[in-house]
Amino acid sequence: MSDALEAHASHFRKQAEWCDRLGSPFNAALLSGLADGLGDGGALDGLLMDGPEPLAPNAADAGPLRVAGALHALVLTGADADLAAHYPSAHPNWQAASTLVAAQAALTRHTGWVADFLTRPPQTNETRRSIGLLPGFAALAHHGPLHMLEVGASAGLNLNWDAFTYRTAQWSRAGTPGGPVIDTDWQGPAPNFPAAFEVASRRGCDQDPMDITDPETRLRLRAYIWPDQADRLARIDAALALADKRPIAVDKAGAADWLETQLVGPLPEGTTIVYHSIAWQYFDPETHNRAMAAIRSAGERADPNHRLAWLRFEHERLFDPDGSSTRHVIDLVEWPGRMHTPLAHADPHCRAVSLNSG
């Protein structure tokens, strides 16, 4: 096997480990099997190395997730009945070995289509992450109307967070009937909810926003949900239905350019919230620096009636580069005063949320 394919195989195995940790044994087995087959001259070798846009074996290109998403899309559309017969939706007692054979055959049958699918990076709207951000939203809502600015919003589904229903073993909060139901293993006190959320404005940005009125876009959003996680698929379907009724504006823009525009001039009455979830890691250093400068500059203009907040759900080492943490944390920075409050930590899919004590 070439060094390049060996690097891809290693990356596939690392992603398989993450899938297993995050509750997807199906994707873990699929990606591990595909890794073992690299270098054998199969269709996947060419797709990774010789496609229209050859993929690098790194987190930014996310080759394993692109391949898994392409295969799931073939199942969801009914384009490959043989592959679909091996997936959890049709075969709850799926078998890793036979699924791998079917997947490799599907990659051969649909090489051109898959090559085109792989040219676009994975994008998801993990609606469950909204419950990790909820303690911050709830605390900030006690200071008047909220003005939401989501960076890396993708399709903008999580800008409708206040219409979601939230349920844990300890507490619940009803949302819009028919909207997504967000649950998690919650450790700690309930958020300090206001009587009602007053969201005065909401807007997002993304380098490549997803238009949910486009059937192809909906397919891609659904395809990147891991096939053995039917609850996630149900949540995104409900979030898409809600967004049809409550459209959200997502601007096509880089994070730094957009924040420099959105945060210029006086802040509106209430609290302007800049927030993001598992997005900061995809920005380059220049974007980091400019975005932080725009936020901090706006914070210097804040006062008790015109507040600014920066709510973050990201890997801890992104904001503590000298640390060795492997956790994803939710924390809040508020102005005036630039007060920093660690709120909670959670896994990237928010299957469990643990609030900080004190």
Structure characterization notes:
It is a single chain. By secondary structure, the protein is of the alpha/beta class. The chain is 39% helix and 18% strand. It is built from twelve helices and twelve strands. A nine-stranded mixed beta sheet has the order 5-12-11-10-9-8-1-6-7, sandwiched between helices. A three-stranded mixed beta sheet has the order 3-2-4, with no helix packed on it. Helix 1 packs antiparallel against helix 2 and helix 4 crosses helix 9. It is globular and about 65 Å long. The mean pLDDT is 93.
- What gap, in angstroms, lies between the N and C termini? 53 Å
Query: What does the largest sheet look like?
Result: 9 strands, mixed
Overall spatial form:
globular
The radius of gyration is 21 Å
SSE run: HHHHHHHHEEEEEEHHEHEHEEEE
So how many helices?
Answer: 12
Give the percentage of residues in beta strands: 15-25%
Q: What is the topology, as strand order, of the major beta sheet?
A: 5-12-11-10-9-8-1-6-7
Helices, strands, pairings?
Elements: H1 3-21, H2 25-37, H3 43-50, H4 63-76, H5 81-84, H6 96-109, H7 111-117, H8 129-140, E1 146-151, E2 165-167, E3 172-173, E4 181-183, E5 185-187, E6 199-206, H9 215-223, H10 230-245, E7 250-252, H11 255-262, E8 270-277, H12 285-300, E9 306-315, E10 328-335, E11 339-346, E12 352-355
